[in-house]
Amino acid sequence: MSIELAFFVPVVAVMVAGSIEFGRLGLEQVRIASAARAGAQYGVYDLSSAGDIDGIIDAARLDADDVTNALTVTAAQTCRCPDGTVQACTISCADGEYAPLYVEVSVSEDVGLWFSFPGVPDTVTLAANSSMRVR
């Protein structure tokens, strides 16, 4: 009985540690995706918000409760034609209409693992993007 237990306990311990890490990384991914969406939502409020890149970044950080600035947040305005080509916002597309304005927010974070596993790096990079149309 004790020999079986000696083999069983380490296997279960590794499975529990892996489950904890997997759940924690999933929760962090949800937090990062929510931050990207929050930044984009701030940017689509109106045209002046779409140009407020610092405000978009602050909104993403605020949503993620990023007090240590651990997140890498980038935001940009782009104008894309219906065929997907990126244009200057003052140039019309092939159909003669101006390209719709989008706010794009990218958020990433290097998350350190609590447990070390053979063959797995000590940090994992999680990332999320959000793109919303302003006009």
Question: Would you kindly provide a brief summary of this structure?
Answer:
This protein is an alpha+beta fold and 135 residues long. It contains three helices and four strands; from the N terminus they run αααββββ.
Describe this structure in words.
- The chain has one domain (2-133).
- It has helices at 2-43, 47-50, 53-63; strands at 72-80, 86-87, 101-112, 123-133.
- The chain is built from three helices and four strands, in the order αααββββ.
- With 135 residues, it is an alpha+beta fold.
Strand order of the largest sheet: 2-1-3-4
Strand content: 25-35%
Task: Provide the structure class.
Answer: alpha+beta
- Give the helix level as a range of percent: 40-55%
Averaged pLDDT: 90
Distance between the termini: 70 Å
Tell me the series of helices and strands, N- to C-terminal.
HHHEEEE
C-alpha-based Rg, rounded: 21 Å
Number of domains: 1
DSSP, total strands? 4
Number of helices: 3
Uncertain spans: none
Main beta sheet strand tally, sense and closure: 4 strands, antiparallel
Shape: elongated
Secondary structure elements and pairings:
Elements lengths: L1 H42 L3 H4 L2 H11 L8 E9 L5 E2 L13 E12 L10 E11 L2
Antiparallel strand pairs: 1-2, 1-3, 3-4
